[in-house]
Design goal:
Elements (H helix, E strand, L loop, with lengths): L1 H22 L4 H31 L4 H22 L14 H28 L1 H28 L4 H21 L7 H27 L8 H22 L1
Length: 245
């Protein structure tokens, strides 16, 4: 039950990040620039090291996680370009804003948040010390998860109400994930594949959706600031990852 109780803190952390994005949505390009750096940082400083750490600890080849990463990237690319975008008529998306893409992106992050909770629960199955360390890591970056969820919904012209609904799901997901681990154990090899798959999702979201939108208004006067914010987002996740490991 310690895992479930600690996961409640992630609920408030996620809500805080999402509410921040809702309040300052008129400055969304700044938020998105920071978000892109956060996504890159999560993949580089948290997910990939975890994949290689699992592979080393279990004596298995990490190439499976890398294949899952490529598969996740290409799958999301295909879903966006063929199932989501082209599901509507061309005149319906002349400005290239696709609410379904925002929903799918948010759902991917919600799935990650659920697995964050699973990670907390599984860590407590190892020991209380490991469980607390993992919980601190999740709480630290769930603020950005909430921010990312709302940002991705708003950038694709979803309403604030729908964005808040996704934020609520994202906030609850870690608690449900932690509770679910009372019922099962996830093999390390399977967890490694999941992490790789999700890393592919994040890389595609950051490269194909978030960064292009952040720079879509082509404001040369603030381009340097936007790039700096992307660097700051990546640096922030580097500091968080180093602090909790």
């Amino acid at each position: 039950m310690s895992a479930v109780l600690l996961s409640l803190a992630t609920l408030f952390s996620t809500l805080a990040g999402g509410l921040f994005a809702l309040k300052f949505r008129d400055r969304l390009h700044f938020i998105l620039s920071f978000t892109a750096g956060v996504l890159l940082g999560v993949v580089s400083f948290e997910i990939l090291p975890e994949i290689f750490g699992l592979a080393c600890a279990q004596g298995i080849d990490a190439i499976g996680g890398m294949v899952a990463l490529v598969f996740g990237f290409l799958l999301f690319h295909g879903l966006e370009k063929y199932l989501l975008v082209h599901h509507t008529h061309e005149e319906d998306y002349a400005e290239h804003r696709h609410p379904r893409v925002g929903v799918l992106s948010a759902l991917a992050l919600i799935g990650h948040s659920f697995m964050d909770g699973v990670g907390i629960g599984l860590a407590f199955q190892v020991s209380n010390a490991v469980g607390v360390a993992v919980a601190i890591a999740v709480i630290a970056h769930d603020f950005c998860d909430g921010l990312n969820t709302v940002s991705l919904m708003l950038v694709h012209r979803n309403t604030a109400r729908r964005a808040f609904g996704m934020l609520a799901l994202d906030a609850v997901a870690p608690v449900l994930g932690a509770a679910s681990t009372l019922l099962f154990e996830l093999p390390p090899g399977t967890l490694m594949l999941y992490l790789g798959f999700f890393a592919g999702f994040l890389l595609y979201i950051g490269a194909a959706d978030v960064l292009p939108e952040a720079h879509s208004q082509n404001r040369s006067a603030i381009a340097g600031s936007l790039i700096a914010l992307t660097c700051l987002g990546a640096a922030f996740m580097f500091v968080v990852a180093r602090a909790v490991h």
